[in-house]
Amino acid sequence: MDFRLVSTPDQLAHAGAQLLDLGSGPLAVDTERAGTYRYNDRAFLIQVRRAGAGTFLIDPVDHPREVRALGARLAPIPWLLHAGHTDLPSLVEAGWAPTSFRDTQLAAALLGHRQLGLAGLVQWYTGTVLTKNRGQEDWSRRPLPEQWLRYAALDVEYLLPLHDILADQLQRANRWEWYLQECNHALHTHGHGLPEPQWQRMKGLSSLRSARSRAIARALFETRTRLARQADLPPEAVLHSKDIAYIAARPAESRERLREVLSRLSAQVGPPRLRQRNGRQRALLRRHGEELRQALATALTLPDDELPSFTGATPTAGTPAPDQQHGYPDVRTWDRDYPEAARCYTALTESLGHCAEHLDLDPALLLSAKDRRGIAWRWGQQRTTLTDPDAAWPAQSADPIGDVEELLGVLAQQRGVRPWQINLLLDATIPSVLA
């Protein structure tokens, strides 16, 4: 397997000329990242391949301006990725933003595959066995070993012929238009730079039952983020979100809980591949543990009018907390408290399940659980039942089926559901919703 490692300005310019002047067809692209070892999931290697030009492994570390310039030159070419939603943010962060792209993982999913890894698909369609055992390595280390580079080159070696096979099968199955819509949606959704951590999305936040607890979580989360950025460590390697939730859950005990957590982390060693990273973590906490203690002290004395907003009464023991992130209560309360939303959610889940079985597709591909909940909640809020005299449309509607189709279609469209999904959704669901 032939490839060229590209790391200097002259090499980057030459690679661009080769890819543009000698290459033809789409550009196969992949990245290697080091999110387990570094603050964020930025790319530490960008692999590209184009028919007629060959494979180039781009090192983006030392000359980011020239790497951005190369990305801009290649942007007009259609790009081909596998699981592009994982690569696009890091590519955009490096200045590589495609104008259009295709994705072999999306193609395989629309053909009914359940195992969507690149190695499995290549073996299924070509019989070639790829060795995929370097994905969790620290790709930020330099120099990169030769065997790692060969592994990285394999990720783009088979993308082009694999996509040709998948594209032909999608055409034969009359699912090509579905595929184009999914690729456009993925580019629109994930074609942005790497997001900064947000405390409102912290895992375990929904378990915190008071505004004071959330203030503690916010203070520790934001301090952790700042320390992690400065040290170029993953935030979770500095202080686990589950530890933040544990500390914040009982404000009266939070100082003692923080001491307990810091003591435990100071003795943590971990598996061999993470020992260097964890050593940096221990050194960081020794130097900056006082900043975490100060953040906690500030949150404990914050005036009530400066606490983060917390809608709804504090739930009683055993009752699910409201889902603050998505704007609706926990779905487990719907049967009791929001029966119209619960009925719609059940109808969506069951009818789309039958449709997916008929099409031999993963039900989540037709409509994600998150979108099912969001549509059902809005449906319940609209109170659109055709038998309810106080409904949004009167029970004597001249076209009740058309009214329901219109509302469901609008609610789905507002959530970014694609046209091909909406068509299947309406065909499968309307009878159940009206039952």
UniProtKB/TrEMBL annotation:
Pfam family for this entry, one: DNA_pol_A_exoN
InterPro entries for this protein: 3'-5'_exonuclease_dom, Exo_C, HRDC-like_sf, HRDC_dom, HRDC_dom_sf, RNase_D-like, RNaseH-like_sf, RNaseH_sf
Domain HRDC residue range list: 210-295
UniProt region (Disordered), positions on chain: 305-330
Composition-biased stretches (Low complexity): 311-322
Cited PROSITE patterns: HRDC (PS50967)
GO BP of this protein: nucleobase-containing compound metabolic process
One MF term in the entry's GO annotations: 3'-5' exonuclease activity
Superkingdom of source: Bacteria
Designated name of the protein: Ribonuclease D
Species whose genome carries this gene: Corynebacterium heidelbergense
